[in-house]
Design a protein that fits this description.
The complex is a heterodimer of chains A (115) and B (114). Helices cover 0% and strands 51% of the residues of chain A. With 115 residues, chain A is mainly beta. Chain B is globular, with a radius of gyration of 14 Å. The chains are: A mainly beta (115), B mainly beta (114). At the A-B interface, strand 5 and strand 10 of A face strand 5 and strand 10 of B.
Chain lengths: 115, 114
């Protein structure tokens, strides 16, 4: 149980385009989903927390207009990297949690490369 | 600054022996700690957790120890098996607050040698 699917797993696109990443909880309802980013040889860094039906809470230093998060249902959250530039190239990974007493379960991540 | 530190980037252990992975933290507000295991090209998988009201939690071959005064926790795996070879992440959070995302360490790559 507790499967989280993330799609796509790898994206290469030109600078200036927008990229949407989907995160789905397949066998449970996720009241809260989290988006993390990992640069090479660094730890996973929390970008934002989203609760179903409400606006996401962004961590300090994360631009909410650049990283648009939508959590429209209890099984789906999306992260859209708008007008992506090479410095946005990173590994993005989502997690989902049924409730506060449950651990977060992670997707397999998305490798984003902006040319 | 790194609030959760895993100072050993890698650890090599012989099959059948005990693996001990260490983690230190600096934020005294952290009150819930988790260990995740990650294989290449996959997301982290939850292993075991511990609340700050406990000093030990055991689940099969995995035991997590928490020393609050030293702000230190460790994961013991015994006996170690080849399938345990992976990167292990220590994570911590503050429960009860509005934002409860996880703060991760950089991970320790555990290699189990036959």
């Amino acid at each position: 149980g507790a499967v989280v699917s993330q799609h796509p797993s790898w994206v290469i696109c030109k600078s200036g385009t927008s990229v949407k990443i989907e995160c789905r909880s397949l066998d449970f309802q996720a009241t809260t989903m989290f988006w993390y980013r990992q640069f090479p040889k660094q730890s996973l860094m929390l970008m934002a927390t989203s609760n179903e039906g409400s606006k996401a809470t962004y961590e300090q230093g994360v631009e909410k207009d650049k990283f648009l998060i939508n959590h429209a249902s209890l099984t789906l959250s999306t992260l859209t990297v708008t007008s992506a530039h090479p410095e946005d190239s990173s590994f993005y990974i989502c997690s989902a949690r049924a409730d506060r007493d449950q651990p977060q379960h992670f997707g397999d991540g998305t490798r984003l490369s902006i040319l | 600054d790194q609030q959760v530190k895993q100072n050993s980037p890698s650890l090599s252990v012989q099959e059948g022996r005990i693996s001990i992975l260490n983690c230190d933290y600096t934020n005294s507000m952290f009150d819930y700690f988790l260990w995740y295991k990650k294989y290449p090209a996959e997301g982290p998988t939850f292993l075991i957790s511990i609340s700050s009201i406990k000093d030990k939690n055991e689940d099969g071959r995995f035991t997590v120890f928490l020393n609050k005064s030293a702000k230190h926790l460790s994961l013991h795996i015994v006996p170690s098996q080849p399938g345990d070879s992976a990167v292990y992440f220590c994570a911590a959070k503050v429960t009860g607050g509005g934002a409860d995302g996880l703060t991760f360490g950089k991970g320790t790559h555990l290699i189990i040698q036959p």
